[in-house]
Amino acid sequence: MSVSPLDRLTPPLAVLAKHDTVQAGREALAAGRSFWPHLTVLTAFWVYVALSNVLYANSMQASLSSMKIEHVFAAWDARLIQHLLLYPLFLLSMWRSLRTGWRPLWRTVPIQLLCALGFAVLAFPALALGTHLLGQGEHEHPGSSGQGWTEFLAGGEIPTWIASATNFLVTYGFGLALVTGFAFYQRLRDSQLRSAALERALTQAHLAALRMQLSPHTLFNLLHTIRGQISWDPPAAQAMVVQLGDLLRRLLSAGEREFSRLSDELQFVALYLELQQKRFADRLTITAPAREDIPRTWVPSLILQPLVENAVLHGLAGHEGAVTIRVEASVSDETLTLRVLNTIAPGRGGSGDTGIGLANVRERLAVQFGERATFEAGPTDEHVWRAQIQMPLLRDGPEGAARPDVGAAL
Amino acid sequence: MEVMIVDDEPVARRSVRECCEREPDLKVVGEFGDPSAALEAIRLQPPQLLFLDIQMDSMSGLALARALDPLSLPLIVFVTAYDQYALEAFEVSAVDYLLKPFDDARFKATLARVRRRHQAHGSLDRRSALEALLEQLERGARARADAQPRVLAEAGSRMHMLDVSQVEVVEADRNYVRLTIGRETFHARW
Question: Which domain does A26 fall in, by range?
């Protein structure tokens, strides 16, 4: 007896709760996921920068050499080493910069500048180190304008250093803009994915909430009728308790699934109407399709329940006479038509009171089928009220047609 | 038929017993609130019919049924408040299951099934034995089919509720999911 059926009454909350954990997991995932794409973007950018710098220096030197001016630009291999040395530095300052962000400005701008300047200023020493490592510079080319290590250490290259720093500051700026733009795009895409997921969860929660529409009023009135029957007619009371049990069981299982077979739905409706018939003794007459006439199709769970509930209330109101309720189901041309008709007291046809139950029916059909389903409710003449659903016929799958109708089991 | 009743609620046991007492061919030989005591008693002296509650605190009725000797298995009718166990019940070869609350009519219908099975059991009439077995299998299959989730999907302008277990291929197709069953393809919104 550990499982309470009441646990089953809260599918909307369960859907939302489940969604929350999915959400948290997704964010954690996004944080870890953004590392490799960022690294790829930055590396590609840096390869481009290195290549363009080396090629530029090389071709300039080539044209200068033809004018007999030698070694204005450092050799290509030294430049390559410079960019290799700068690569981890570039990644490090980018990483720091992205982690810092831009808010609040007064605190982040100094850090951002520090990253940029630190990187740019180290560009020239890196070239000098490259030249030194290759054993070029002062020894082999004494006449060069020389990015030599010793000369550099001696501090004789200040203007070149400044020029280099400016150049690499601009490069750094481009890199930062690129990776920030990329991060922005990723966040936008993630938020789009997130909002789509949220929308879906909301629709599900919404539908689950709309399905739960047996009015508490009806339930307690039924209990009260049974209470009376217990002493007047014990077997009838027992039968009613069993029927109420069936009704609640069907209500709960329909609350869990979005669609039911039409035969199940009509059985539920019959059960409900039978109980109401017992409540109102001789006043209700009910006509429903014979089991063999029920089209083999699926309908949104409990979609008919608000209609028959409304028919009972509406039909009985305002007079003491008999009421006939008729439930019909028919198929034509891929469209299923469901009708609930009830007789009304003369003069009550004008009251267009459609109630919250009927609004729910309309909304559920709209969420599931959009334009392909319609719902109308209103008097057809002064004696009859009609509620009508038209929706697409929902067939079984290819082999499904051969299966026994599950609805007949209970 | 000798009958045993296992349910941890005294009132529930009483209502089954009263139903049994109205039947001349049933004789209640044991009533247990404690599943392990019931298991002992059934092993010692197996009855022909066993009414077994599913949700009991110390041991579930399904576990109890699985612990029984398959060669001297009584006819089992599960008594449960909720039909979520229907599938499992038929998997441990229950004859039927009674949903609480039940009335005389439901009890008699179940008893009719039990008697058919009992006679088929005792007789050499293979056809009735086979029929009883088939009926039970069919009810199990229905419970299984009912437990399958379904998904709304379109093929052209026709809409279907597809049994998810039948779907052979699932593919992404822009905003849709393409499902294949045999030679037919369907589109589902996701």
Answer: 11-208
Note whether residue A215 is domain-resident. Answer: no
Q: Which of B83, B105, B159 sits opposite A394 (nearest CB)?
A: B159
Write the DSSP assignment of A278-339 as a string of letters: HHTTTSEEEE---GGGS-S-EEETTSSHHHHHHHHHHHHTT-SS-EEEEEEEEEETTEEEEE
Tally the domains of chain A.
2
Q: Are residues A50 and A162 in the same domain?
A: yes
Quick check: B76 and B93 in contact, CB under 8 A? Answer: yes
Residues of chain B with CATH 3.40.50.2300: 2-146
Helices (H) and strands (E) in chain A, counts: 11, 8
Q: Give the C-alpha separation, A251 to A94, whole Å.
A: 59
Contact A384, A346 (CB under 8 A): no
Residue A247 domain flag: no
* Torsion sign (Cα): A251, A256, A258, A260: negative
B145 touches chain A (CB under 8 A): yes
What CATH number does residue A374 fall under?
3.30.565.10
Tell me which CATH code domain B2-146 carries. Answer: 3.40.50.2300
Q: Does B142 touch chain A (CB under 8 A)?
A: yes
Structure tokens given for A38: 């960022």
Q: Which residue is listed with tokens 């009439």?
A: B125
Is A238 within 8 Å of B152 when comparing Cβ atoms? no
Nearest C-alpha neighbor of A368 from the set A258, A293, A270: A258
Q: Do A386 and A267 reside in the same domain of the chain? A: yes
- What does the alpha-carbon distance between residue B8 and residue A359 come to, in Å, rounded to a whole number? 45
Residues of B in contact with A398 (CB under 8 A): 166, 181-182, 184
Q: Does A399 contact B182 at a Cβ distance shorter than 8 Å?
A: yes
Contact residues for A48 (Cβ-Cβ < 8 A; gap 6+): none
Task: Give the tokens for residue B45.
Answer: 């002296």
B1 DSSP 8-state letter: -
Q: What is the pLDDT of residues B106-152, one digit of tens each?
A: 899 999 989 988 887 766 566 776 777 777 777 777 777 777 788 88
Q: What is the pLDDT of residues A250-291, one digit of tens each?
A: 877 776 777 888 998 999 899 889 888 888 877 889 999 988
Question: Which residues in chain B touch residue A235, judged by CB atoms under 8 angstroms apart?
Answer: 103-104
Same-domain status, A172 and A288: no
Could you give the 3-state DSSP secondary structure of residue B57? coil
